[in-house]
Amino acid sequence: MDVAALPIAPAATGPADEPSVAPAPSPQGRKFIHPGLLHTESDFERMRLKVKAKAQPWLDGWSALTSSGRAQLGANPRPLATVIRGGDGQNFAQMYIDIARAYQLALRWKVSQDKRYADLAVVFLNEWSSTLTTLTGNADRFLAAGIYGYQFANAAEIMRTYEGWAASDFARFQNMMLNVFYPLNHSFLVGHNGAQITNYWANWDQCTLASMLAIGVLCDRPDIYEEAMSYYKTGQGNGAGLQAVYHVHPGYLGQWQESGRDQGHCTLGIGLAGAFHEMAWNQGDDTYGYENNRFLAGAEYVAKSNLLDGSGAFYTVPFFTNVNKQGTQSVLSEGARGHRRGIWESVHNHYANRLGIATPYTALQATQMYPESDGGNGDQLGFGTLTFTREPLATPVRPSGLVARVRGPQVVLSWWGCSDASSYSVKRAESAGGPYTVIASTITDTLTFTDTSVRTTGAYYYVIVATTAAGESAPSSEAKAAMTPELLLQWKPDGGAPAPVSLPAGLVKNAADFTLSIRVLLDNAATWSRVFDFGSGTRRYMMLTPRSNAGTVRYAISTVHGYNEQVIDGMSAALPVGRWVHVAVTLSGTLGTLYVDGVVAGTNPQMTLAPFDLGETTQNWLGRSQFPSDPELQGRVDDLRIYSGALGAAEIAALGQA
After folding, report:
1. Domains of the chain (ranges, CATH numbers)
2. Global model pTM greater than 0.90
């Protein structure tokens, strides 16, 4: 792609300011679906019909609900004016038990149509909204506001259609959510309790996001809803979409951010994120599919980590060292390994039964927990067997999401399977569209294949087919692997351009092995200024600085705020000043090479991070850093070129002379 003719704007002079106060209501045109959080009216209709027909597994799910001690008539609310979680005087269990009662009573009403359960649910909601004024405690107060905020909102969202709940009482409940829960949610996302942003593990952000999304719908506040949606996609904390699934291994096993911490918190995170995605889906937003089903990759990783294989040992999963404010986690944590939590039905049913995408380990977890109950500890609402089970798709599907990444002298393939497949075959061609030859077959797990029988020139084209009970599926979409480097983008203004410059998003999203070439004319080489910086804030970036604090030119890439930064340092000095200089970076496999004026200036043979690991880079700049305190480049930039694949030394030297 030649972007020379695209409208390239000067980069903004400073970062977007984070809000310091809660946003005011905005007159946006969005109309929410009601009920429209974890369950819609069509969901309730499905439950009613299936239970009436005594169909399984819905009947077993219904039995789990009706046998729950918290779903019975006769209980009385125990509202508190002040709820404390963390520190002295904790009493938060009193609240989450009553929330569970309200939710379960609401479910019993919607499925049975017995208004006695609706009337009692309303009593619980009214007593709490008439009494609660404060959520407090130590930092755990933010967990209380998040976990119990989204749960309380879900109970109320179900009941909002009940004619027996007075409009004034519903309004009072909305005010409680806006004035007690939301301010803590907002405060945490903005300030993270005054801590460095990676101090808090993923589930802190995730419960907060679930609460804000739910409150936005319940209270018809598009601004609050969009605040949560925006943070999920662009937020810098560990619970945002790219950070919660910290690293995606071949075969789409997505390492969870807390996998080096303990497994109980990993399963909690899946439950919280699953609730967020389901609520967003019911409002028409597909965050389930964000970044090629990144959440499913994380769910499969956590599910597999906590399951036993045929020999009775835990499955082995790959692990990529995670570094954050809490320290370094270099291996999968054995803490609470095998942890069971009733949160898997929603994930499995969305991907497998709505979309036809295989969920092998998530499905095994759902089977293990069958039928889902509430779990009893207040961390999840539960009863997913009743509420989330859907019939499988009637029409066959095909493998999806195929990518083919050139990594040194091989091509690494990953794809999503289909829910009715028993195995998969890889087909390869030397021309787009075929003819194809089978090069691997009977692949069952994990869905990846490394093609090592490749030449170093030309291109290959791959498809995946599934073997099902009905025979061979239709092929996946075709994926190309260019063995000869191909020019993906060139930006060449007439005579160069003064920095900074903003480039389009997603420039390097799919690049594995790559080459980046650029010319720069420096007025001075300020420390930590940038020749280029492609990223999505301080969390994820790849950059080149003319002078590091060591006084040398440096290329660096990181996926966690610099904690896991991998670098190539120039061997001697900063970039020269006062003349045009050609700089290039290449990656071939794990070998990174930095060139200055066509000469190798530094190498690193252990560069395991590639541009595709950054995900969608939304802030791609020439002359400006992701870090607002770094100085802007003083000089001009010209002739940016990005290639798939690593150019050789002779080709880099030729570019330097062009």
Report:
1. 41-388 (1.50.10.100), 400-482 (2.60.40.10), 486-657 (2.60.120.200)
2. yes
